[in-house]
Design goal:
Layout (H helix, E strand, L loop, with lengths): L4 E4 L4 E4 L7 E6 L2 E7 L4 E8 L2 E9 L4 E11 L2 E8 L4 E6 L7 E4 L8 E6 L2 E7 L4 E8 L3 E11 L1 E10 L2 E7 L5 E6 L22 E2 L18 E5 L8 E8 L2 E5 L12 E3 L9 E6 L2 E8 L3 E8 L5 E7 L4 E11 L2 E8 L4 E7 L4 E2 L2 E2 L1 E3 L1
Parallel strand pairs: 1-26
Antiparallel strand pairs: 1-32, 2-29, 3-4, 4-5, 5-6, 7-8, 8-9, 9-10, 11-12, 12-13, 13-14, 15-16, 16-17, 17-18, 19-20, 20-21, 21-22, 23-24, 24-25, 25-26, 27-28, 28-29, 29-30, 30-31
């Protein structure tokens, strides 16, 4: 890994204030990004970023005091879905189609982790979270039927699972178990693609999780995790195949997994030479072979890794714009040449910075690297 450089980036701009939860974001279209967070008056703060313009849509009152951070997802340019947990362990579902609809209870009690959202077709999405009994739970939405579930998927897990779409109707889930190991589970429908959705989940998959490796194959270092994982599906190019890549926090450093056919001995399973990590990571793959990972680090800055799945190289930098960010950042990619990063500051500000991937310029300005 390259020696870490501190990037003195242009100061990120303020989108909102009074924010008390980490933000979450989704790219609805190539020119439209939605970001939500909860403010100090227990309202859902929703902003739309279009080009260089940020529009404050609404600050919506929540029915009860929230916990954790919200979950956001989209299955089309005119639709958002948000899930929020409250102190009574209820899970609320909100729909946005130009305006916010009323809250609906997805779970009346027992939701103990933030949810993860994934959609693989218009009018369909799946949500995964952890129940009070430590069992991974699955909710599914099919238009026009609506939201259904939860169903229990067996084997106790801890914290928020991570899920991505890997193919038409194909899902991959990675979660942490009670011993800090990493679990993997796959879902798919028959190859003939003739399946018709009904009021049942109909997601054939493995009945148990695969348990990930305990140690890195090359160094023998422990791969046990102490934070929630993030998961990304990275497209290959040329001789480089598509890859599933997961990252998780281990105390104050990062661990990388590639849960493919060689889940136990994969060359991508390793402890990364990153220290002073203070939050769980988030990751995005904006273009083939490339994965960008962001996470909080000490001194109120944001760590940034870029890894190439072709040669397994990793670049490590720290973004420093002097704002004092805290918590877990949010990142999404609306276009293959752009990353949108969102952070919360100790003062309760929601801020954003944009990276043009081609020249790695932040907010239109070249960064100044000091190793």
């Amino acid at each position: 890994m390259d020696e870490c450089a501190v990037l003195r980036v242009p100061r990120f701009r303020v989108l909102a204030d009074g924010i008390v939860t980490d933000p979450v974001a989704v790219a609805r279209t190539p020119e439209c990004v939605d970001v939500v967070a909860i403010d100090d008056r227990n309202r859902l703060c929703h902003l739309v970023i279009a080009g260089d313009t940020a529009r404050n849509v609404e600050r919506m009152e929540l029915p009860a005091r929230s916990v954790g951070r919200p979950t956001i997802g989209s299955w089309g340019p005119d639709r958002l879905d948000v899930f929020v947990r409250d102190v009574e362990t209820r899970l609320w579902h909100y729909e946005f189609d130009g305006r916010w609809g009323p809250p609906r209870l997805a779970r009346s009690a027992g939701a103990v982790s933030d949810a993860s959202f994934v959609s693989w077709s218009r009018g369909r999405f799946d949500v995964f979270s952890t129940g009070a009994d430590g069992v991974l739970e699955h909710y599914w939405y099919q238009q026009p039927i609506g939201l259904m579930g939860p169903e229990s998927l067996a084997r106790p897990v801890v914290g928020q699972p991570a899920v991505v779409v890997t193919s038409l109707y194909g899902l991959e889930i990675v979660a942490r178990d009670s011993f800090d190991g990493v679990l993997r589970r796959q879902y798919h429908v028959p190859e003939e693609r003739t399946h018709e959705w009904t009021s049942t989940p109909m997601l054939p998959g493995r009945t148990t999780f695969e348990v990930g490796p305990d140690v890195a194959p090359s160094t023998g270092e422990s791969l046990r995790c102490t934070g929630d994982p993030t998961l990304v599906w990275c497209r290959g190019i040329g001789a480089v195949e598509n890859r599933l890549v997961a990252f998780a926090r281990q105390e104050d450093r990062l661990v990388q997994f590639e849960p493919g056919p060689d889940w136990q001995t994969g060359r991508g399973n390793r402890v990364l030479a990153v220290s002073a990590v203070t939050s769980d990571p988030v990751a995005v793959s904006a273009r083939p072979r490339r994965v960008d990972v962001f996470f909080g680090v000490s001194a109120g800055t944001v760590g940034w890794l870029t890894t190439d799945t072709g040669d397994s190289s990793v670049r490590h930098r720290v973004l420093d714009d002097g704002i004092g960010s805290v918590g877990r950042p949010a990142v999404c990619s609306s276009r293959s040449d752009r990353l949108e990063l969102f952070v919360r500051t100790a003062a309760g500000e929601l801020r954003t910075g944009r990276c043009e991937v081609n020249g790695e310029q932040w907010n239109g300005e070249q960064w100044n690297a000091n190793a």
